[in-house]
Amino acid sequence: MNPTWLCLSILLAVSIVGCVRPEPDPDTHTPARQSLSPAREASLALELQGNPEESPAPQPIVGISAADRAFIEGAAQAGMLMVESSQFLLERSASKPLCDFATMMVNDHGISNRALETLARTKKAILSVSLDLEHGAQIDELRELSGPQLDAKYLALQIAAHDEAIALFEAAARDGSDAELRSFANEGLAALRQHREQLDGLSPPR
User: Fold this and answer.
1) I need a labelling partner for 110 at 20 to 30 A (CA). Which of 18, 53, 124, 127 fits?
2) Could you give the percent of the chain with pLDDT greater than 70?
3) Closest CA to 91 of 107, 78, 103
4) What is the pLDDT of residue 53?
């Protein structure tokens, strides 16, 4: 064969082979990722997270009655008055019987005050952290006294405070709307009545 024709034949064969592309293997071909619309992406996200409409709705907080709130505040004021007056007496008085009673007041009513604070928090009730004007004035009166006058004034204050607290707790235990507050009032009554009897023993003979 003519060398010129041979070269032309080889070049033609090479160009034909170069133009032929191999078919992709169907087993290894990865299809292009289809883009999703924003609406479809949001729908898929809800399916993965769960439908929020199917979740149980939070239960509303049921408030306590005005009378129960008044009991909580009244009990808190009475407890703080008994503790603060007793703390002051312990700083100034030389009477051992009164100091022993005052120590019991600080311990017993300190515990009940903290229990009331915890209970009030569960009822979404906000307690005062200090005495109101009326009860604060009683502490101020004590601060002006000393010796036997202080002892007599403290004793009269505790008697009046316990009488008022017993009436308050009895009404709450009997008429309260909230079961937990009624239970708290019933439990507190036993201690209040015991303290009141001890106060009778501390009273000067008439």
Assistant:
1) 124
2) 68
3) 103
4) 47
Find out whether 131 and 77 touch, Cβ atoms under 8 Å. yes
Name the residue with higher pLDDT: 34 or 198: 198
CA angle 129, 79, 188 (to 5 degrees): 130
CATH superfamily of 66-202: Ferritin, core subunit, four-helix bundle (1.20.1260.10)
Cα-based distances in Å from 35 to 20, 29, 38, 41: 32, 18, 9, 10
pLDDT score recorded for residue 127 = 86
Q: Mention every residue, 6+ apart, whose C-beta is less than 8 A from residue 166.
A: 189, 192, 193, 196
Q: Where are the domains of the chain?
A: 66-202
Specify the residue for token string 């949001």. 42
- Give the closest residue to 75 by CA, choosing from 201, 171, 206: 171
Give residue-wise pLDDT tens across range 53-98. Answer: 444 443 334 578 999 999 999 999 999 999 999 999 999 999 999 9
